[in-house]
Amino acid sequence: MTKSTLELKDVKTTVKTADGEIIPILKGINLKIKSGDFITIIGTNGAGKSTLFNTIAGSLKPDSGQILHDGQDITKMSEEKRTQFIGRVFQDPKMGTAPRMTVAENLLLATNRGKKRFLKIRKLKENIPHFKEMARVMNNGLENRLNSFVEGLSGGQRQALSFLMATIERPDILLLDEHTAALDPHTSENLLAVTDKQIKENKLTALMITHHMEDALKYGNRLLVLKDGRVKVDINEPEKKKLKVSDLYAYFDD
Ligand SMILES: Nc1ncnc2c1ncn2[C@@H]1O[C@H](COP(=O)(O)OP(=O)(O)OP(=O)(O)O)[C@@H](O)[C@H]1O
Fold it and tell me: Does the residue 13 lie in any domain?
């Protein structure tokens, strides 16, 4: 039997609004994520997709339930500690990178994730050929911008850098929160193609939130539909291959 990399057992998460109101968002999530799963996640606005990622990453703590990583209970583990095995790319190209540092400096900082990090000039120079090779894979000229400040990059290059930083230490779980949503169609398509290639080649375990039904079907081996804080549908690869976009829209209706 394939071991679960991550398991959520009846996870319930609430959020507190600015005026102190407590709202239940995740209402009992049960999920077993196997090593090598590439799961696309869809659901209406407010279904709890980002809250699910926040709960997995540790930026929100569940009110009840359990989260297990390789069988170890991590429910109370800090977000910082979880960065040792969880990589995350956000929708906003401004998140996840240090704008006033160069691309190469950001990449160096992303190595040794979760441990003490120092920027040593020698180490930076040593790593340039390696970083260049890595950046070339992103297929958008990032390899020619290694010494540029991140704030001067295009949105697509910045998201490509975020992706590299999230995967540089081969995370056990990669969380992609609509990571191409802010990009133009061509740039988005390129980043998704590279994302898919990297996940397959490096046998990464990944969860990707998307509002594009075509992408939810095209990528990954499993599909989840979240509705009102619960997993409404969990579809495996053979079933997913049979689905059409119209089938997915139907899940939103009832
Ligand atoms: N910190 C917070 N304070 C108040 N409400 C919150 C907070 N975080 C999330 N919510 C609410 O929780 C619900 C779920 O939000 P979440 O971002 O998880 O949904 P989502 O499925 O990712 O939606 P979207 O597709 O719009 O990104 C929403 O109604 C949102 O307004």
Answer: no
pLDDT tens-digit readout, 67-86? 999 999 999 999 999 999 99
The number of folded domains in the chain is 1
* Predicted TM-score (pTM) of this structure: 0.94
Atom of ligand 1 nearest to the CA of 91: 27
The boundaries of the domain holding residue 111 are: 94-168
Residue 140 inside a domain? The answer is yes
Residue 135 in domain: yes
| Rounded CA separation 192/39 (Å) | 14
In short, whether 179's Cβ falls inside 6 Å of ligand 1 is: no
Residue 119 lies in a domain: yes
Residue nearest to atom 8 of ligand 1 (CA): 15
What are 27-32's contacts with CB under 8 Å, separation 24+? 27/228, 27/229, 27/230, 28/65, 28/229, 28/230, 29/55, 29/65, 29/229, 29/230, 29/231, 30/231, 31/6, 31/7, 31/224, 31/231, 31/234, 32/4, 32/6, 32/7
